[in-house]
Amino acid sequence: MKRICCLILCLSNLSLSAQEVDLTSTVQSLKLKINNSEAGERLMWMDSLSRLIDNRTEFGYDSIARSTIAYALELDSTRLALEHAYSLIISSWQELRDPERSLEFFNKIMEQVPDDRNFAELSGMYREAGRNYIMLNRPDKALESFEQAYTYAIEVNDQDQMGIIKNAIGQVLSVMGDFQRAAAALQESYDILSKSDLEIAWRPKGSLAILYSQNGLHKEAKKMRLEIIEEARGYKSERNKNEVLNGTFYNQAFDEMLNGSQEERIRFLDSTRVYAFKTDYRFHELQILVGQLSAYAENGMLEKAEAVKQELDRWSRDEGFFEVDEYHLAMAHYEFAIGNYQRAALLGEREYDKLKSSQFYEGIYMAHGFLAKVYDSLGNLSRAHEHLRAHHKIKDSIETVQKANGFSYYQALYEAEKKDSEIATQRSEIALLNAKNRAKNVWILFGGLAILALIAIFYLIRLQYFVKKKQQMHARFSRNLIKGQEEERTRVARELHDGVGQKLMLLAKRTKLTGDPEMESLAMGTLEELRSVSRDLHPATLEKLGFSAAVRAIIDEVDANTTIFFTHHIEDVDHLLCEQGSLHLYRMVQEILNNIVKHSEAKSVSVHIEQRAGDIEMVVKDNGKGFSFKEKLRDRSSLGMRTLLERAKIAGVKFHVESGSSLGTKISLVMPT
């Protein structure tokens, strides 16, 4: 059996060697063709060579790709240049872990290519630039790059690209602390990807789970991740399934660690490993090994920790090895577990130095907690206390921000003690100066404060009086104006109905006798228009049928004459309304419906009117384009909203608007009975 295994291994090595020989031969052949050709033919061979040795540093991929890009630009083959530039940028940050080099090359290329064509390639370039800015902890520049990438993706209507970039935008906004915009971007990303490709729609969903975790909503985050895991098991693509399950299990393991659930942490990490080694991505494999080493060591599982440590040691001897996040901290946990405290302290400090200027606050506070434990074991109580205090300080800050459902950057986090010391010194100096001058200045100070207080109180009383008086005058003017409008509308409506309306009716009857159908149609149409104008000016249905029936009638009328789909639920609230209250509320409904028809571009509208706890509550929702309520109020030409607010004040109605771009509009009215 051993001989068979050895034979198979030898044959495998021979096969790989033969493949390398064939590749080397092909590379030499292509180089010879490049040297013996010109113009388009030469570019074709250069393109073939670059694609053949993609990411193979031993064949000089970097220099060959750069030569291909330069020659493509020289021949004005911009698309081909951008394709190879995209691959080179990915190679620089993914394989070489050198984002600065990637961005330097990106900026150089962007100066040489036009921005009015090749939108798909430009979108990819800007997306990769954003990813490199993230690695450099520059979220502002990352956001700018992703937004530019999204603009280009829209130009070619690449739905997958649009969804992926929106997910990246949401992640950056989350890092920047703008959780409301982040959640909206992630939801938009999911809406796009769920329609174009369900097997990548998990990305924004996973990002949203991380957003929940950052705000302390760990149960909701876990529930969402379990949904992602269940969905991923049914993916057709094994590659996608492995990537999704690896990332989702790993993120949940990290959450369990933060929550102190060590058994669940290890369970999720063990599940992650199954899929990480199927992704064919070295970063994932190293990340899981580091996570397992840390977890096993922290929980006293030394045999398993030793096995993982040996794996990492074998990897570290490999030419392509690189240190992933928390590598030193995991090694430090291992050294601590076997009693090598000095080595553990050295590795822990190295991890802290790596993290302290980043925004990975959970990692920072974990590093502080570990160092506190190590220095305590070494008997260095002052250093242990220093790190323990920093650990609790950061943890309390994170928990406070989570409770407020917000997130802010912890600026100068590790200079806090120094700044506190400086502030304390300054305060002691100020206190000393105040003590020397207090006897001399105390009466002047209190006398001046008393005078200022009296002046301020007098000024505030007068200001409040004038403001209240002005508000009363404004309210009285508004009431009189609206009352005058209603009276004038009623008068004009009656004049039209009794005067012009009667004459038009006679005219319609006479034209009918003449036998001229066109004249008859014109007369009847004019009469109907006049009646419609009269009804708008003075709603007779309000007097005859009451408020509830009148509102149903106006909704049915708008529904019949527009393409908007209306639904309504209107309780009979007539007995709760006085005549003026009915009129004001009816006019507000009328104005809201007019605004929806004219401006919202909505497809559907719902109207609910019901009695609740002694109040009449009305809610009107539409799925239109939305608007900024504050901007509408500032716009002097927008009279509709101002009129609604004035009527609401006069009628004592609580008026509330919720709206946003592409989010529709919800208007709530509450009238006390």
From TrEMBL:
Q: Which InterPro entries match?
A: HATPase_C_sf, HATPase_dom, Sensor_HK_TwoCompSys, Sig_transdc_His_kin_sub3_dim/P, TPR-like_helical_dom_sf, TPR_rpt
Q: What is its EC number?
A: 2.7.13.3
- Ranges where the Histidine kinase/HSP90-like ATPase domain occurs: 580-673
Listed transmembrane segments: 442-461
Mention any Pfam family matching this sequence: HATPase_c
Cellular component terms per the entry's GO annotation? membrane
| Entry annotated with the keyword ATP-binding | yes
Which keywords does this chain's UniProt record carry? ATP-binding, Kinase, Membrane, Nucleotide-binding, Phosphoprotein, Signal, Transferase, Transmembrane, Transmembrane helix, Two-component regulatory system
Reactions catalysed, semicolon-separated, are: ATP + protein L-histidine = ADP + protein N-phospho-L-histidine
The organism's superkingdom is given as Bacteria
The top EC class is transferase
Which residue positions does the secretion signal occupy?
Answer: 1-18
Instruction: Tell me the GO molecular function terms.
Output: ATP binding; phosphorelay sensor kinase activity; protein dimerization activity
The molecule here is called histidine kinase
Q: Which organism is it from?
A: Poritiphilus flavus
